[in-house]
Amino acid sequence: MFYIWWFVKEIDTKFWKIYNISIKTEDIVKITNSKGYVNLIMKKRKDKWEKWETHYIVQNEWNPTEKNRPKYEPEEWDLPF
Hints:
single chain; mainly beta; four-stranded antiparallel beta sheet; 9% helix; 41% strand
């Protein structure tokens, strides 16, 4: 997992929360996958870090394969109708 040191601050407004995110473009280029996507996870910090940061962002590296893909097998349902 590639840790991205982007700065995230949660701001409460009257109606909802807003997340202020500062991003370095060089980091996005480094983690862009072969399809051109960047998959990220934003996590809440347990304690505030550096005065105002409330969250942090990490790269989501999960990649579905036949081995870890959920298997859905049809079930026979006993329906009353």
